[in-house]
Amino acid sequence: MSELFYALVPAAGSGSRMGSDLPKQYLDLAGRPMIHHALTTLCACPNISAVFVVLAPDDEHFKRYDWSHCGDKLQMLYCGGQTRAESVLNGLMASELEPDDWVLVHDAARPCLSQHQLAHLISELRNDEVGGLLAVPVADTLKRADAAQRVAHTEKREGLWQAQTPQMFRTGLLLQALQTAPSVTDEASAVEALGLHPRLVASDSSNFKVTYPQDLQLAELLLQHGKTK
User: What are phi and psi of 176, to 5 degrees?
Assistant: First the structure.
């Protein structure tokens, strides 16, 4: 089995919940476009051979920035689709990786991924038969809302985890999964649809997804104070 690791970052979306005309991945974060931070971390990982960033075919923003610090590891694929799953599937096919190669799919909007989290994920999954993902056990009490936005009931949180990225699977398995279940919101869900059980690798809340404008402030604080080393 292959011991080669690659990363793939789908970055063809618009991030409409941020309320900005500029796609979310290019919003300023600590003086850089948000996507800079995730790509820099992935390219700096010694285990990762190449990092594929999947961009919209008409993306004019990415080339405006200097990516020389990423070296030859960073490869651009202008084949993004209308959904995350479509972008990942298109990117996997364009990358021409071997079926046994590991691929780590990471959100461009998770800028605070640390080298420690990345190394821990690879270490825990490199011999796993299925693969898995970074995740955090749910700590908050969860409420189910009714149509009037009133509490219908409280959900039990035992055994619930909040999925993060990277999500790490063999390329051939992930291709099969996404072709079988093309409407999923993350790669693990597609693998689950095959009847498999991805492994949960414990992470922490610093690897959160920037979704709303106020999230940028928290991400900047974490980056500035070195909480993502």
Answer: -60, -45
165: helix, strand or coil: strand
Task: Please tell me the distance from the alpha carbon of residue 41 to that of residue 70, in angstroms, as a whole number.
Answer: 9
Return the CATH superfamily for domain 5-224: Spore Coat Polysaccharide Biosynthesis Protein SpsA; Chain A (3.90.550.10)
Residue 54 has, within 13 A of its CA and on its CB side, a CA count of 26
Please state whether 149 falls in left (phi above 0), alpha (psi between -120 and 50) or beta: left
pLDDT tens-digit map of 190-207: 999 999 999 999 999 999
- Cut 0.90: pTM above it: yes
Break the chain into its structural domains and give their ranges. 5-224
Cα–Cα distance between 153 and 32 in angstroms, integer? 43
